[in-house]
Amino acid sequence: MTLLTPAAGNAGLLLLADSRVPSGGHVHSGGVEALVDRGLLRDVEDLTLFLAARIRTTALVTASLTAAANTAAANTAAANTAAANTAAANTAANTAANTAANPVSGKWSYETTCHSRGWSCWDAAVEVRTPVAALREASRAQGVALLRTALLAWPQDSGVRALAELGRPHQPLVLGAASAAAGATPAQAAVLAVHHLVGGAATAAVRLLGLDPLRVAAVQAGLAPLVDETAARAASAAELAVHADDPDLLPADATPLPEIMAELHHASEVTLFAS
Amino acid sequence: MHLDHAKFDYAPLPAGPRRGFRIGIGGPVGGGKTALVAALCAQLRDELSVVVVTNDIYTEEDAEFLRRHAVLPDDRIRAVRTGCCPHTAIRDDITANLAAVEELVEAHDPELVLVESGGDNLTATFSYGLIDAQIFVVDVAGGDKVPRKGGPGVIRSDLLVINKVDLAPLVGADLEVMRTDAERVRDGRPTLFTSIRNQPEVPEVVRWVREKRAALVGTG
After folding, report:
1. How deeply is A127 buried, as exposed, middle or buried, from its count of CB atoms within 10 A (0-12, 13-18, 19+)?
2. N or C: which end of chain A has fewer CB within 10 A?
3. CB B10 to CB A270 under 8 A?
4. How far apart are CA B144 and CA B140, in angstroms?
5. Which class is B21-211 in CATH?
6. For residue A113, is pLDDT > 90?
7. Which residue in B84, B91, B106 has the most chain A C-beta atoms within 10 A of its own C-beta, making it the best mutation to test that interface?
8. How far is CA B89 from CA A42, B32, B79, in A?
9. Which of A169-173, B72-76, B79-83 is predicted least confidently?
10. What average pLDDT score do residues B138-153 get?
11. Are the beta carbons of A274 and A262 closer than 8 angstroms?
12. In what order do the strands lie in the sheet with B112-116?
């Protein structure tokens, strides 16, 4: 593993922050369409309030999961590098990589530590924090989409590769692992997660309501301090949880109305966005 | 290092043992994309295993049309929602479509995959990360200036289909002008004139599909 230079991670971070990178995100409105359809979100003021609430709740949770995944992925990569360095031959390195890449084997038990269960443990942490089935599916669909890009972008990254073993991992895990592969820190990964949640909802509101995109950009700029503060909280919680090897320490806040709406949205026939 | 997982082979798009030939069908709203998909299904379903992915702008209208007309069993048709951006879903972020194609490939191992875009404008084209070849469908009622105006769909598509030629006299469209303009901008790529309503067998388009598929995957 090469040493990080002072600027390392910035370009990779920006790449992952760019909505032009294929991630499946453009077909999701972050709950906006369901509210717009019911007249519950009508203008820039409504959007501002909605985003502020989502940042403090759902985004905090997503960001903490993303930051935790970033750390876990970096740990996997570091462990693999250590194994590779100590191994005398390539075959030994492959064995170590395969062992690290295959954490899902075995039955779950209270005795098994989160660490030994690897990604499945953190995947379960996302699952349990996403009480609505429609949103669990939305998360997995976007996870698969971003994983598709990440596997091509960072084909050698052991964190990303190990995550692929899950089949359909949740989106925060993929974003976390991809950000680690790109050289981003857990704190940067947390900002990235909130950024996407806010950006996805904001652009959906522009498309659905014809809001002034300049004003919406201004709203996002105004919310930036809250985004940063929330991401910092998320990163702290993630650090604690990963260190203690206990996902239960991650936040579990939610906004019940948009989540119930997500289920109604999923069931309704006339929608532009998948969620 | 060897990545051993059973479910997904993320990239490139797995084709299945039979290497399904993937065709994108794009073009403006109302040109006849869905009618062409239905026609191709009806003509080819007995000789090839066919599946369809639709990209509706709104609802599952196109998928419903295909189901209603029973051109294929329901489980061979998937609808992708495109979040107000049908061109993004087929060009810039193809991941939702890749997932839909993958599910159909896994379930049916098809020989022909038709991906129909949502009706968009003359600039909307498919990424070749999603499809092997693309058909761009316009109609004469859009005006005989369309080929001259060009745009990536008209110019670069592997096949340009100009549909509803039966309406040409009614809308004052000059088919010769359209033919000449298309030839001029398309650099040798083929253009076909159709009236899917009057001749739903679309024999020339079917022949083109067979030839393209044979060229890519062989006839076996």
Report:
1. middle
2. N
3. no
4. 6
5. alpha beta
6. no
7. B84
8. 26, 20, 12
9. B79-83
10. 91
11. no
12. B77-81, B50-56, B112-116, B21-26, B133-139, B159-163, B191-193
Q: What is the dihedral of CA A134, A137, A138, A141, to 10 degrees?
A: -160
Using DSSP, how many helices (H) and how many strands (E) does chain B show? 9, 7
* Alpha carbon distance B27, B147 (integer Å): 12
How many whole angstroms separate alpha carbon A137 and alpha carbon A201? 18
Tokens 């390539």 correspond to A90
CA–CA distance, A246 with A26 (Å, rounded to integer): 33
CA distances to A10, A79, A121 from A151, in Å: 19, 19, 21
Query: In terms of Cα–Cα distance, which of A227, A65, A199 is closest to A130?
Result: A65
Q: The whole model's pTM is what?
A: 0.83
**Tokens 């680690």 belong to residue:** A180
Rounded to the nearest 5°, which phi and psi values hold at B52? Answer: -135, 135
SS3 string, A118-138, reads CHHHHHHHHHHCCCCHHHHHH
pLDDT digits over A146-201, tens only?
999 999 999 999 999 999 998 899 999 999 999 999 999 999 999 999 999 999 99
Who contacts A15 (Cβ-Cβ below 8 Å, separation ≥6)? A21, A153, A182
Cα A142 to Cα A22, A73, A103, B94: the distances in Å are 10, 18, 22, 12
CA distances to A157, A244, B52, B155, B207 from B128, rounded to whole Å, are: 26, 46, 17, 15, 22
Of B3, B83, B99, the CB nearest to A164: B3
- Using the Cβ of A174 and the Cβ atoms of chain B, whether some distance falls under 8 Å is answered with no
Report residue A30 as tokens: 């972050």
pLDDT tier, B13 (very low <50, low <70, confident <90, very high otherwise) = low
Contact A60, A190 (CB under 8 A): no
* ipTM field: 0.77
Q: How far apart are CA A250 and CA A248, in angstroms?
A: 5
Token pair for residue B132? 């092997």
Which phi and psi angles does A36 have, rounded to 5°?
-60, -45
Domain boundaries, chain B: 21-211
Specify whether the CB–CB gap between B139 and B35 falls below 8 A.
Answer: no
Chain B residues whose C-beta sits inside 8 Å of any chain A C-beta:
1-5, 7-8, 10-11, 57-60, 80-85, 88-89, 92-96, 98-99
- Domain count for chain A: 1
Q: Residue A112's domain spans which residues?
A: 10-267
Tell me which residue in B5, B80, B81 faces A165 most closely, judged by beta carbons. B5
How many Cβ pairs within 8 Å bridge chains A and B? 91
| Single-letter residue type at A39 | G
Identify the CATH number of the domain in which residue A162 sits: 1.10.4190.10
